Amino acid sequence: MRTSSYNILARVDEQEGLYAILNAYTQAFDIINTEVYNYLRVNGENGEITEETRDTLVKRGYLTSLSQKDEQELVKQLLDRAYDETRFKKNSFHFILSYNCNLRCVYCYEDPVLNGGMCLPKKQITKEQVDKAFEIIKEKEANGKKNKKIALYGGEPFLAENYDIYS
Fold this sequence. Notes:
By secondary structure, the protein is α+β, with helices and mostly antiparallel strands. It contains six helices and seven strands. The chain is elongated, with a radius of gyration of 27 Å.
């Protein structure tokens, strides 16, 4: 057994000898005493704790039998899974067709940006990029992840020059 590389320890009360411990991937959080703190700081090589305390430290992820490399791989897998589970749960996709604009809206906040020297890119999304995005949306819907909204964004998405893209 060794101390997890993902423990975060912080002193919370110097007089009482209390420390906060958080394991970043198990999300366990506890207040521990100096004896347990010292045990964890030296990977259990010096000091004694009860078997019950040791079992709790293992159960909460503060002690691990994994090597540092294996623990890193586990965390990578957990993060990859969390990313895959959440990245398409939002109910909308936003397409920035272009930042081109005719600057005629009375509420325009882009005019100072476009004409003030901090020009936004003049690039335009391509039809191929839009088609690829819709392929991804359809794939996610086939996997049970429904997307309810598609928003067009940019300078003025409905300019005549963008017609081939949004039609």
